Amino acid sequence: MRGGLSGMRPWLDSWNAYWFPETSALRLSVCRIIVVFAQLFLFLPPLDSQLSLVRPFKGFIEPQALIVAISAILPSEAFPTGSALLTIYWVTVASGITALIGLATRPSAFIFALGNWILVAHAYSYGEDHHPEAILCILLMLFAFSPSGRCLSVDSLIRRLGRRPRENSEGEWSEKIPTAMWPLKLTQVLLAFAYVSTGFAKVVFGGFQWVNGYTLQQYVLSSAVKRALPLGKWLAQQHGLCVWLSIGVILFEVFFILALIFPRSLPYFLVGGLLMHGGILLTEGSPFFQYIVLYAVFMDFDWLVPALRRRGSSSLSGELVPVLKLAPSRRNPGS
């Protein structure tokens, strides 16, 4: 028995080293600000569309699991109703603001994530759904179970003001903790599997048809005509280019997981992802901005530490400059 446990020790050490490296919470806190801001001001399900689904309420078509659970607890007179959705929406907005500034960060993040889950699930309970928000909404909930408010937050400012003058006030951004990276690592893995599963689905269920060029031409043409996109109409007439683009998309999706295994390849995959999603937007009009925002979990924001140290306790957020640095390879992120 002891021999078996000792044999597993290297695997356990590798597991812990990957998910729980000793790093500061700065990277996690910056991601909290970016993701919460994007969800609050860009991706939050519109209130008007939520209310239009229940006025008058004609029943769910394909109720999502969360909506089924809520409906089993609350009577139909209470949910879904306009007043219930109004309450959920504004509570979600309020908690999003407090999560953004880092006031009662964990409960705020939990309420904000749960509110988004309910609103998204409600919107998808009446017909077709694609769930581009899924991973981002999961990350919102992960903020509630991690030290995402350890720095760059009102909570951290309150902690610093409550310290005695002789105590160390350098800032929580320099404190090394083992629980700051696992939400970002998990999001990286989920995003990689989302890409990989999409790529394999094309190969397994579509086969050669996905790379013959005609399939992409058909998709692009139908979307471009419907949305009046000149670039899409032009691309739909370029068969050879569509062949190469189809091959490139599948290779990107299937092999994206290599970015987690070989960190040096990460910049190329992220640039490829930006080009792919940007091309889809311009030619088909399908936005995948949530995935682009999620690229923040791959970024290394520890270059902010010197600026934060210079500012010290006199500034809540430090000197944020609009430059992103990719996570360095061959070392623990955030170290």
Structure, briefly:
This protein is mostly helical. It has 16 helices and no strands. It has 2 domains: 139 residues, no CATH class; 114 residues, no CATH class.
Low-confidence stretches: 313-325, 328-335
Which percent range fits the helix content?
55-70%
Silhouette:
globular
* Strand-pairing-aware structural class: mainly alpha
What is the helix/strand order? Answer: HHHHHHHHHHHHHHHH
Q: List how many beta strands DSSP finds.
A: 0
In whole angstroms, the N-to-C terminal distance is 36 Å
| Number of self-contained structural domains | 2
Q: Major sheet: size, sense and barrel closure?
A: none
% residues in beta strands: under 5%
The number of helical runs is 16
Radius of gyration: 23 Å
Tell me, rounded to a whole number, the average pLDDT.
86
Question: Can you walk through the features of this model?
Answer:
This protein is mainly alpha-helical and 335 residues long. The chain folds into two domains: 23-161, no CATH class; 186-299, no CATH class. The chain has 16 helices and no strands. The two termini are 36 Å apart.
List key phrases describing it:
single chain; 335 residues; mainly alpha; 16 helices; 0% strand; globular; disordered C terminus
What is the topological layout?
Elements: H1 2-19, H2 26-43, H3 47-52, H4 65-73, H5 82-101, H6 105-123, H7 134-144, H8 154-161, H9 182-206, H10 214-227, H11 230-235, H12 239-255, H13 258-261, H14 266-284, H15 289-294, H16 305-311
